[in-house]
Amino acid sequence: MYEAIKLEKGFYHITGKSFSEVLENMDPSDNYRDTPLEGLDTYER
């Protein structure tokens, strides 16, 4: 199953990381290997 993440404005202001990188750290793509969501990035999920 997917991880529900509440999106926050502050994610855009974390120094040295893009919005997608912040989301990826919270919900790694490796958790979706061999599922229908494999191949989507964190934002798309």
Commentary on this structure:
By secondary structure, the chain is mainly α. It has one helix and no strands. The protein is elongated and about 30 Å long. It starts with 18 loop residues before the first helix and ends in a 19-residue tail after the last helix. The model has no long low-confidence stretch (mean pLDDT 88).
List keywords for this structure.
single chain, 45 residues, mainly alpha, 18% helix, 0% strand
Topology of this protein?
Blueprint: H1 19-26
Q: Which oligomerization state do the chains in this entry correspond to?
A: single chain
Shape: elongated
Q: Averaging pLDDT over every residue, what do you get?
A: 88
The structural class is: mainly alpha
- The run of helices and strands is H
The percent range for helix content is 10-25%
Uncertain segments are: none
The profile of the biggest β sheet is:
none
The tally of helices reads: 1
Give the terminus-to-terminus CA distance: 11 Å
DSSP strand (E) fraction?
under 5%
Kindly state the number of beta strands.
0
Radius of gyration: 11 Å
